[in-house]
Amino acid sequence: MNNAQGKPELSVFDFDGTLTFRDSFTLFLRHELGFARYAKRMTGLAIPTSRFLLGSKTRDQLKARLIRHFLTGISVADIEHLADDFCKNYWSKLMRPRGCKEVAEQLRRGATVTLCSASPELVLQPFADRLGIRLIATKLQARDGVLTGEIDGLNCRQEEKVKRLVMEYGDLKNFHVRAWGDSAGDKQLLEAADEHFYRLFH
């Protein structure tokens, strides 16, 4: 569906906090490992987390450390299976009904709809599939079907969200862009949109 300016519509939703009640990735790790194992492994991140809180380590650095700490050496197939299970078990607990309703409304309008998230693509793919929309998210590096523990490229937040959208869809000026976000990580995305909605579903 085209808008009054005759441009195709591109509707972009952040995931964590925008369409969900809480962060999905840490909940996925707890679901994957069980609370006891998750808590034990998290103690190994106490120092990096403290450095982040004190400002000597960036959010991206802490995210990279978290991925390296938990996901190194796990097969892609196992993560995909766990992600499917996670989506089935936590959908109703995690997803904001009003957000899901808006996604469906944008699809009904005929817009191209995509998630654009810093969470790992492998974890979010079942959620995007269930919503019936496209996905742009942080990619995890794998060799021979096994995760290396490294991010493939950059963490998909802030200006990287806009760059990834341009890589996927081309010049955003060719679209009427609507964007939904809830945090500082969405600032550049919201600024790039013709219409932007901050914490609309909270």
Tell how many strands the DSSP assignment holds. 7
Proportion in helices:
40-55%
CATH topology: Rossmann fold
The share of residues in extended strands comes to 15-25%
**Radius of gyration over alpha carbons?**
17 Å
What is the domain total for the residues?
1
Give the terminus-to-terminus CA distance: 28 Å
The chain-level mean pLDDT equals 92
* CATH homologous superfamily identity: HAD superfamily/HAD-like
| Outline | globular
One letter per element, helices H and strands E, the order comes to: EHHHHHHEHEEEHEHE
**Low-confidence parts:** none
Q: Sketch the major β-sheet.
A: 5 strands, parallel
Kindly name the structural category.
Answer: alpha/beta
- Widest sheet: strand ordering: 3-2-1-6-7
How many alpha or pi helices? 9
Assign the CATH architecture: 3-Layer(aba) Sandwich
- Classified by CATH, the class is Alpha Beta
